[in-house]
Design goal:
heterodimer; A: alpha/beta; Amidase signature (AS) enzymes; 38% helix; B: mainly alpha; two-stranded antiparallel ribbon
């Protein structure tokens, strides 16, 4: 029998219900895998081995005495299942660093809402994963501690900022993970590592306790091995939170209810602007093949036209830097954490640009102008969604890049995230799914973007593609 | 934008650093002067668009006037002391900072 760390959430639920194995055994296999390979991958900042083991034993005790396990798992869908959390979500009594030296010893007194919900659903927190410091980056290279390696090729980057979570999932060091996205930080590392990454609609999942980057964009979301797991996780995480005034009160649908409906008759738009000159040939090939597969499955493919992503990059750069400079102003080293001399290069650069665009005399020329173009980008998507149900394109212009790539250009992250920034600016949900491999055996990701609160259709469509292609079964050899 | 070119001067970098409470080394100032100028010339692309009469968007989802009841909540006393203990300088249940007012 394969080892339990290789399980998916759905697989773990089944096995635990049938008492084929215990939560303790599953946690043990994950910890053993971490012990074996994380020296090479470096996905984890903190591993909670003792707490996770203790918690698993408690869960097993409950499973032993519970009469109806079906009811237990309906109520607690993640019961006894180990998950990892990106280290920018506050975890009570567990060090939370945001991969910055400023917070290297910070131990929060409370759980982020996302963490609270995971625990309430029965999940076991296995550890905290690496990221670009403060989530500023697309590579984990700006982490103040270390760079995570891509499990498919150790000389490549995992992408970022949720690179630790993506690497941990694809290398089977955990059953599932949580990441956060501001402009690509879930989808891009998922593309580079070959995982399923969902950036939900802005406000669908609470930001409370997520160390803030750009508050009008930040969206926590699941990073998993298969599409079904992504739906299970979002079902747990979604919802209105009194502690986050921008969380949405809209009802939460049953995300798996229409899994079997298929995709016949769905209209998908493919924007020609998303295949610009910097997009690698292998990426264009794989995504074009995927488009043909969707067609074969009965999807109506339409060519659509969206704003040139270069405008979204400019808008995103202004808004994000401005919000970063405001959010990082609180790190004064007086109440907790180290002082501002501990901020890394990338954080300083972003604070500087943000402070500049918000400063007297420049606010209208930069920040307000960006907010106006933001309106145009939202309207642009609204217009396209009148004619199609979903939009499909590559997630990242390239496959995983070599170490050092992020240091070459001051706009590295923005170009890297050119294809995910427009949708994040409009608060739209998007899902990355693997659509094959490059000639040098690195995963290629495609993204499906939906209208606001369109997650249910995203899952259904991504699942149909996953079932047709089975790319998720291919695993890296480490 | 309303700047002649996209170059940021040394003095401007120093002024922004002061506003942002960042102490920068000479090398950092030089590097930032270059990097910020590159970024500013990139975002200049927005000038190509026409957005006369367009209203600014501050949040992508349409929510209005989210308020909560104005009521006092009780928190455990232990939490306060846990929070105070986190401060690098603390004394008798207070956070110690440098003096900011002078007579």
């Amino acid at each position: 029998m394969s080892r339990l760390n290789q399980l998916t959430i759905t697989g773990a639920q089944e096995g635990l219900k049938k008492k084929e194995f215990s939560s303790r055994e599953m946690v043990k296999d994950c910890l053993r895998r971490i012990e074996e390979i994380d020296k090479k991958i470096k996905a984890f900042i903190t591993v909670c081995d003792e707490n996770a083991t203790k918690e698993a034993e408690k869960k097993d005790g409950r499973i032993r005495v519970e009469r109806d396990l079906k009811i237990l798992f309906r109520k607690y869908p993640l019961f006894g299942i180990p998950v990892v959390v990106k280290d920018n979500f506050c975890t009570a009594e567990i060090k939370t660093t945001a991969a910055s030296r400023v917070l290297e010893n910070y131990i929060p007194t409370y759980d982020a809402t996302v963490v609270k919900k995971l625990k309430e659903a029965g999940a076991i927190i296995l550890g905290k994963t690496n990221l670009d410091a403060w989530a500023h980056g697309s590579s984990t290279e700006t982490s103040d501690f270390f760079t995570t390696r891509n499990p498919w090729n150790l000389s490549r980057l995992p992408g970022g900022s949720s690179g630790g979570s993506a690497a941990a999932v694809v290398a089977d060091m955990t059953i599932a993970a949580v990441g956060s996205e501001t402009g690509g930080s879930i989808r891009q590392p998922s593309a580079w590592c070959g995982t399923v990454g969902l950036k939900p609609t802005y406000g669908r999942v609470s930001r409370f306790g997520l160390i803030a980057m750009a508050s009008s964009l930040d969206s926590p979301g699941p990073m998993t091995k298969i599409v079904e797991d992504s739906a299970v996780m979002l079902q747990v995480l979604a919802g209105k939170d009194d502690l986050d005034s921008t969380s949405l009160p809209n009802p939460i649908p049953d995300y798996s209810a229409n899994f079997n409906k298929g995709v016949s008759g769905i209209k998908i738009g493919v924007p020609k602007e998303y295949f610009f000159s910097e997009v690698q040939e292998d990426v264009i090939k794989r995504v074009s093949e995927a488009v043909r597969i969707f067609e074969k499955m009965g999807v109506e493919i339409k060519e659509v036209s969206l704003f040139d992503p270069k405008y979204a990059i400019a808008v995103y750069t202004i808004l994000q830097r401005a919000e970063v400079s405001a959010n990082l102003a609180r790190y004064d080293g007086i109440r907790y954490g180290n002082d501002r001399t501990f901020l890394g290069k990338e954080a300083k650069k972003r604070i500087m640009l943000g402070t500049f665009v918000l400063s007297a005399g420049y606010y209208e020329a930069y920040y307000q102008r960006a907010q106006k173009v933001r309106t145009l980008i939202c309207q642009d998507f609204d217009e396209v969604f009148k004619g199609v149900d979903l939009i499909l394109g590559p997630t990242s212009p390239s496959v995983a890049m070599p170490f050092g790539a992020s240091k070459e250009s001051p706009m590295f992250g923005e170009i890297q995230d050119a294809l995910v920034e427009p949708s994040t600016i409009a608060g739209l949900p998007g899902i990355n799914i693997c659509c094959g491999f490059s000639s040098d055996n690195l995963p290629v990701g495609l993204q499906i973007i939906g209208p606001q609160l369109g997650e249910e259709l995203l899952f259904r469509t991504a699942l149909a593609y996953q079932n047709e292609t089975q790319w998720h079964l291919k695993k890296p050899k480490i | 934008m309303n700047r002649q070119n996209n170059m940021i001067s040394r003095e401007e970098v120093k002024h922004i650093a002061k506003l942002a409470r960042l102490g920068l080394t000479k090398e950092e100032i030089e590097k930032l002067q270059k990097d910020l100028s590159v970024t500013l010339s990139y975002i200049k692309k927005l000038e190509e668009l026409n957005y006369d009469g367009v209203l600014p968007t501050s949040h992508p989802v349409k929510l209005e006037n989210i308020t909560r009841k104005d009521e006092a909540k009780t928190r455990e006393l232990g939490e306060a002391s846990d929070l105070i203990k986190m401060a690098p300088g603390n004394k008798e249940g207070y956070i110690k900072t440098r003096r900011i007012l002078f007579s």
